[in-house]
Specification:
Oligomer: single chain
Radius of gyration: 27 Å
CATH class of the largest domain: Alpha Beta
Helix content: 40-55%
Strand order of the largest sheet: 7-8-6-9-10-11
């Protein structure tokens, strides 16, 4: 059992963080997860006052922690003016009610929330677009619906906007029906938006432009990277989940080809399943992409674990097997030992170490991105005689044609071609090598 007090200030609402160490858990895992919970609380505008860890063989069915630990936390809160306790897990409705009843007194009320509720609060804080707000509300309602029992006089502390309720089964059933109607309405609105997004995606498919998703752990610097490459000007803060809504920008590669870069919502350990479902249309950007820039914070000691969490979520989203360029960001803030550890633990052929904030390593990143985007393809200029237009038809069928200029003696075509097509049409290619390919 362990209790840790943090330095405190009076500006932000303070909370006690609670975790249970089960037999399969390590101290490092618990410490890492609690550190992440503290950062989530900071992003939500609060501040961790203390952390409490209890070693147990299994969570207590009634209060998740033991009765002695409940009394210890209640005393800690009363003595220091703390009115919120946050559990680093997902609590059942009855556990929340029992904990609030046991921790609170008439003179000192204490609210209890869990990790999922905290993440939902952050999502509500950062949602800016209409679609983002609908997704957050739907996730909140899906979380709230099974937790109506035992909420006291408040239906929800998450601001669902439905109002308050008195005691009685009739009112409870009315609230449940109201929630169900609202969830159905939200799902219908999101289905329309998802259909529109699907139309946009199909248009991108028809354009033939290579699509790249910028994905990875939250606060790894994905938005900063997109801003550095494209000047997108989107919000980039040192906060968890600063970006919820996808942003897509064109980016011109050195060879002249263009790719579409899409910034996506960040990942985190134990991301609630209903959040993944609510943000399906946003997260689908990863599944629809032709390749992924997996951005990781090289200055974070947990970088290797964060990479693995991201890779697991790629598999869940149906994006496994896509080309991945591993981008180890924030190298300007990382010591050499951490960078070497990342190199050793995460040996990847396609990896770059950069600082999106300072611009270091961008040339190497762009060069590797171009290699992936072209997949062995190159941008070539062909001059095809007017009496051999079958070659032009081949280019239209098997390559990406950028421009066609009809002249008196022939057609000048700029196209991105693979090695086979380059060999087959080598005799028309400007600047061709002397050797002749096997395909000719």
């Amino acid at each position: 059992m362990e209790q840790k007090i943090f330095d405190k200030t009076e500006e932000a609402p303070r909370a006690v963080l609670v975790s249970v160490m089960l037999p399969d858990d390590s101290e490092r895992e618990i410490e890492t997860s609690l550190g992440e919970l503290a950062r989530l609380l900071d992003t939500a505008g609060g501040e961790a006052f203390a952390s409490v860890v209890q070693a147990k063989s299994a969570p207590d069915a009634r209060t998740y922690i033991g009765s002695g630990k409940v009394e210890e936390i209640a005393e800690l809160c009363r003595n220091n003016g703390i009115h919120m306790v946050i559990f680093d897990c997902e609590l059942s409705p009855s556990q929340i009610k029992n904990l609030e009843d046991d921790l609170s007194t008439k003179e000192h009320e204490i609210s209890v929330i869990d990790r999922s509720m905290l993440i939902l609060d952050i999502f509500a804080l950062h949602a800016t677009t209409g679609e983002g707000k609908l997704q957050v509300e739907l996730a909140q309602l899906k979380y709230t619906a099974p937790r109506l029992m035992g909420k006291g006089t408040e239906l929800s502390r998450l601001g669902g906007g439905i109002g308050t309720r008195g005691p009685g089964e009739t009112k409870l059933e009315s609230d449940r029906r109201h929630l169900k109607r609202r969830m159905n309405a939200l799902e219908e609105e999101l289905a329309i938006l998802e259909k529109n997004r699907g139309v946009q995606r199909r248009a991108r498919e028809r354009s033939g432009i290579f699509k790249v998703a910028i994905a990875g752990y939250t606060n790894a610097g994905k938005s900063t990277l997109l801003n550095r490459l494209t000047g997108a000007g989107i919000l980039a803060e040192d906060k968890l989940f600063a970006t919820l809504d996808p942003t897509t920008r064109k980016f011109a590669l050195p060879g002249g080809s263009e790719v579409l870069l899409t910034d996506t919502v960040g990942f985190i350990r134990n991301l609630p399943h209903y959040l993944i479902k609510a943000f399906k249309s946003t997260l689908d950007e990863v599944a629809w992409a032709d390749a992924i820039l997996l951005v990781a914070d090289a200055s974070d000691p947990e970088c290797p674990d964060q990479i693995r969490v991201s890779e697991q979520l790629f598999a869940e989203l149906g994006a496994a097997g896509k080309p991945i360029l591993y981008v180890f960001n924030k190298c300007d803030a990382a010591d050499e030992g951490l960078i070497n550890r990342c190199r050793a633990e995460l040996a990847r052929e396609s990896a770059v170490f950069v600082s999106a904030k300072e611009g270091d390593g961008m040339e190497e990143l762009v060069a590797k991105l171009e290699q992936i985007a072209l997949g062995g393809k190159t941008r070539e200029t062909f001059v095809i005689p007017n009496n051999e237009q079958g070659a032009l038809a081949q280019l239209y069928k098997n390559a990406t044609v950028e421009s066609v200029d009809y002249g008196a003696e022939g057609v000048t075509v700029v196209a991105t071609v693979d090695a086979k097509m380059r060999g087959q049409l080598n005799r028309y290619r400007i600047g061709r090598e002397d050797e002749t390919s096997e395909e000719e």
